[in-house]
Amino acid sequence: MTHPIRTVAIVGGTHGNEFSGIYLEKRYREHPELVARSSFSVRTLIANPEAHKANKRYLHSDLNRQFRTKDLTDPSLTNYEQSRAKVINAELGPKGAAKTDFIIDLHNTTSNMGPCLILTQAGAVYNLLAAYVKMKMPSAVISRDEDHFAAEDHALLCTVGTYGVIVEVGPQPQSVLRQDVLEQMHEMTQHILDFIELYNTNQLPELPKRTPAIRYLHSIKLPMNAQGERIGMVHKNVQDHDYEAIHPGDPLFVLFDGTVLPYEGDTVVYPTFINEAAYYDNNLAMSFNEQVWIELP
Amino acid sequence: MTHPIRTVAIVGGTHGNEFSGIYLEKRYREHPELVARSSFSVRTLIANPEAHKANKRYLHSDLNRQFRTKDLTDPSLTNYEQSRAKVINAELGPKGAAKTDFIIDLHNTTSNMGPCLILTQAGAVYNLLAAYVKMKMPSAVISRDEDHFAAEDHALLCTVGTYGVIVEVGPQPQSVLRQDVLEQMHEMTQHILDFIELYNTNQLPELPKRTPAIRYLHSIKLPMNAQGERIGMVHKNVQDHDYEAIHPGDPLFVLFDGTVLPYEGDTVVYPTFINEAAYYDNNLAMSFNEQVWIELP
To answer: Closest to B175 (Cβ–Cβ): which among A171, A256, A277?
Structure first.
């Protein structure tokens, strides 16, 4: 083991209307014994408190798209979320030389994704973590999201830490707190903390050599007309079927006039974030992924 | 038949982030043949366009709580939704002497309520409508909501018409458009229009003498502390189980410390709007209802 993990931050409310992380952060803040372990310190943070007060995802721009290194050092970016990003970078980072070794950023989706652990970088620690979490929580899905980006080009909050992951749990409507979703988020967070403790103390159990995962390819948009108005929606065969294979020719969208648009790619893809509410403003329909394996030596 | 129904209004977007009605109104506006019938005229309306542009339920206050007769005539009520209510009352009403005989107001809920037809008043036309819709669409639930209020004390938009109903379909997260939910809303709206046509032309088929329905009793709040902060949430046994009986002693809430709070009433109740996202600001947990029958002579 080369780098023990000595400082951990648990972040809720990066999006102000994703309630599970906001309530879980509060619970951990009031009961630090729930997240305390012997080999590292933990702090918690509500990342976007003003968006939460307004019951919105964000006030001016999506906070979880503000953490590219060049943006964090650009003094011309001054709106609320751009300012919060700089403050969080100072508190938990600075990115590239962070005082925080591991960031756990808690998110909800309205999509039917269950408990999903999103890894933004490749590397031995991430592979061990993925194998451990999947072994302890078989319902978890491991997602490699944009691991083809260099860390400095990543816009996500969790990339401010030396290591960082997203705990993404759904389906949960915005501004709702569901017991089942909260419990799944708590369970996954506990497994991550346990993993760090075992990793630091060199006590990891034997882990599976191969762990199934998905890897992000690209996002696709809803059907729109030349004026940018939506002219269709996600086909009901796809709705709620996150992670299930879409084959060439399968129904993908249905236009409001009833016309069905098939998937026109030539490879099988696995969708995530299907019809996510937060994408109302950029007309994203879903993300496409491939199936991969995470291999341990 | 005493009063034929000659003018019908179909209203979407009374809440700006309930997308099914907003898209259905647009479709009906662009394809009026979908709602045209021989015996009445139809107009459509987006009630709260600024809230929709802001992707919010409302800007200043809930539009669907602004239609009490005394509020509509109170010049001191001037915020955006209070102003929209006065304009809509002038366009479709005035309440109590309306130029619109029948208003269909299209709504979504994040709760698992399926297609629900909400009646706000009692009376022979409502009873016939309920029997017809339930016969044509067995998955529909008929809800008598606050039928113990006089019409002038009703705050709902649909009460501006001589007759008015709410088509309430869920579950759908705010700011999401689901094909299945849109189809259910379209189907129920079509049944209502067909009913009006058959009623006007004295061609109603034989209808069931008894139609099951629920009747609103009262709403209950989430557990809160003295500071008004939520200290618990809807129990997972109740979540998504709209319309299913809650018996005295059944789990109702779970506090964040794990304590289960049972239902403490002494009669069986049937919940609706369980954990509805829009009630984040007033901490409502759900509505309680009783089972009733709608009887035809």
So the answer is: A277
pLDDT in tens, B51-97: 999 999 999 999 999 999 999 999 999 999 999 999 999 999 999 99
pLDDT, one tens digit per residue, over A224-261 is 999 999 999 999 999 999 999 999 999 999 999 999 99
Residues B253 and B196 in one domain: no
Domain boundary among B181, B208, B235: B208
Nearest to B239 among A179, A233, A281 (CB): A179
Q: Residues B267, B248: contact at Cβ < 8 Å? A: yes
Q: Cβ separation of B174 and A174 shorter than 8 Å?
A: yes
Nearest to A95 by CA among A120, A118, A115: A120
Give B173's contacts in chain A (Cβ within 8 Å). Answer: 110, 171, 173-174, 277
CA gap B178, B182 in Å, rounded: 6
Contact state of A179 with B281 under an 8 Å Cβ cutoff: no
**The two structure tokens encoding residue B132:** 């017809």
Cα–Cα distance for residue pair A183/A233, rounded to 1 Å: 31
The per-residue DSSP string of A46-59 comes to ES-HHHHHTTSS-S
CA atoms in the 13 A half-sphere facing the CB of A265? 16
pLDDT per residue as tens digits for the range B138-197? 999 999 987 778 889 999 999 999 999 999 999 999 999 999 999 999 999 999 999 999
Residue A295 within a domain: no
Among B154, B186, B208, the domain boundary falls at B208
B296 found inside a domain = no
Distance from CA of A66 to the nearest CA of B (A): 22
pLDDT band at A7, cuts 50/70/90? very high
CB contact under 8 A, A55 and B180: no
H, E, C per residue of B178-237:
CHHHHHHHHHHHHHHHHHHHHHHCCCCCCCCCEEEEEEEEEEEECCECCCCCECEEECCC
Q: Inspect the interface and report whether the beta carbons of A179 and B256 lie closer than 8 Å.
A: no
Of the candidates A176, A275, A278, the beta carbon closest to that of B110 is on: A176
- For A274, the domain range is 218-288
pLDDT value at residue A281: 84
Q: Do B178 and A239 touch (CB under 8 A)?
A: yes
Write out pLDDT tens, residues B4-63: 999 999 999 999 999 999 999 999 999 999 999 999 999 999 999 999 999 999 999 999
Give the one of B23, B230, B276 whose C-beta lies nearest to A256's C-beta: B23
Pair A250, A197 in one domain = no
Considering the domain architecture, whether residues A184 and A222 belong to the same structural domain is answered as no
Does B239 contact A182 at a Cβ distance shorter than 8 Å? no
Mean pLDDT to the nearest integer, A144-150: 84
Q: For chain A, what is the domain count?
A: 2
Co-location of B126 and B256 in the same domain: no
Q: Are A103 and A169 contained in the same domain?
A: yes
Q: Closest-CA residue in chain A for B186? A: A256
| Pair B200, B230 in one domain | no
